[in-house]
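User: Here's a structure from my thesis project, written as structure tokens. My advisor, Dr. K., wants to see whether a designed sequence matches the one we expressed. Can you design one independently, without my sequence as a hint?
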């Protein structure tokens, strides 16, 4: 009897444990992913994926990226093309729930969207959508340098070590930060530089990119201005195209002009190539030359120079050889045989840097657009302004950086 009392509870406990384990094992088995229920239907939800495309409709505002989202499944790929077959690139998010285009929808375009999807149960599908954007009421265009004014060496545009990248806009740009984000400069050696917004001599808005210091000779530079679909802001209009430019930096040339000693010196890679006697702007009044750093903008050859175009009345009207433009306000380096008695002795020009025919012909053949002219002298008009040609070098690096809309 005593043995019977001890064994009965043990059998009872074993029976209770077995009874509890049986339903637990059954629950674990039925929850396995993809296992069919009693009727043979997959347990996983295989309903169609819901895809949403933004924007949608006709004549929607441009200037926003295309966005695609998925609910109840995943996006596997998204293709967005315009009527001309151009694609808006983008990437599906890691969770497969969204896709955003890298570029914005441009004005006056028709877009087709195809999104391929996969449900939770693995079923593939696709969704198509379409929308159009409103046309641009006003278009903003760009004039850029370096361009045709630079020299072409071996098929590539070659410039001097002080050449900036310069974009001048037809209409005002108030949305400067957004515009600047679309301007990408790449160089072969990681040159440090910055964009800076200035007022061009013409009165138009302008943005220049200059290195912190003069370019290193041989640097290869490329600009990608991905402006298409960007709004300039109030009264500016839309950009409806992209712009690209590429150039190579030539020899390390600096032109040093000492107006007090009436002398021009060409320095190449740190070595003096030649000194040339010159005559600068007449002391006193409006006929003085500018000082500071000016950049050779263009080699214009033989041109007509008329004093009335620079506010000097009827002082002169003549054809001038070997003309090299330094500012928009009319300062050139050029041949000035009529001033021969003053070369190396006195400043008697109307603001330009004059030299003999022979020296001007030689010098014209040595320099290229983008070469810096570092001009010194006591009696001058002042320093070349940033927008008067390429005068950005007359600002310190810190001052120039402050002109960026992104700083």
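Assistant: Designed independently from the structure alone:
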């Amino acid at each position: 009897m005593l043995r019977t009392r001890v064994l009965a509870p043990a059998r009872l406990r074993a029976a209770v444990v077995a009874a509890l384990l049986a339903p637990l094992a059954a629950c674990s088995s039925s929850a396995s992913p993809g296992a069919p229920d009693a009727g043979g239907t997959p347990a996983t939800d295989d309903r169609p994926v819901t895809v949403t495309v933004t924007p949608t409709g006709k004549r929607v505002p441009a200037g926003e990226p295309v966005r695609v989202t998925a609910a109840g499944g995943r996006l596997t790929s998204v293709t967005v093309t315009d009527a001309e077959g151009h694609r808006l690139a983008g990437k599906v998010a890691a969770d497969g729930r969204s896709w955003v285009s890298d570029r914005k929808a441009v004005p006056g375009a028709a877009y087709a969207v195809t999104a391929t999807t996969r449900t939770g149960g693995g079923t593939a599908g696709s969704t198509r959508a379409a929308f159009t954007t409103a046309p641009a009421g006003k278009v903003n265009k760009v004039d850029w340098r370096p361009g045709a004014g630079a020299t072409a060496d071996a098929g590539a545009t070659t410039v001097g070590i002080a050449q900036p990248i310069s974009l001048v806009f037809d209409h005002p740009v108030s949305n400067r930060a957004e515009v600047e984000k679309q301007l990408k400069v790449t160089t072969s050696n990681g040159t440090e530089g910055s964009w800076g917004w200035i007022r061009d001599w013409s009165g138009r808005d302008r943005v220049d990119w200059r290195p912190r210091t003069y370019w290193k000779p041989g640097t290869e530079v490329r600009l990608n201005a991905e402006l298409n679909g960007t709004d300039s802001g109030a009264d500016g209009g839309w950009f409806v195209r992209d712009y690209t430019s590429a150039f190579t930096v030539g020899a390390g040339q600096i032109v040093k002009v000492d107006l007090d000693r009436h002398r021009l010196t060409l320095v190449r890679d740190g070595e003096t190539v030649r000194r040339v006697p010159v005559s600068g702007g007449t002391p006193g009044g409006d006929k003085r030359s500018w000082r500071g750093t000016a950049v050779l903008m263009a080699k214009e050859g033989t041109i007509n120079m008329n004093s009335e175009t620079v506010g000097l009345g009827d002082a002169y009207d003549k054809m001038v050889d070997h003309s090299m433009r330094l500012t928009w306000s009319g300062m050139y380096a050029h041949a000035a045989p009529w001033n021969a008695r003053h070369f190396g002795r006195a400043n008697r020009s109307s603001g330009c840097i004059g030299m003999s025919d022979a020296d001007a012909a030689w010098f014209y053949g040595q320099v290229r657009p983008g070469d810096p002219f570092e001009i010194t002298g006591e009696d001058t008009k002042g320093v070349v302004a940033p927008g008067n040609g390429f005068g950005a070098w007359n600002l310190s690096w810190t001052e120039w950086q402050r002109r960026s809309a992104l700083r």
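When you compare it with your expressed construct, this may help: The chain has four helices and 26 strands.
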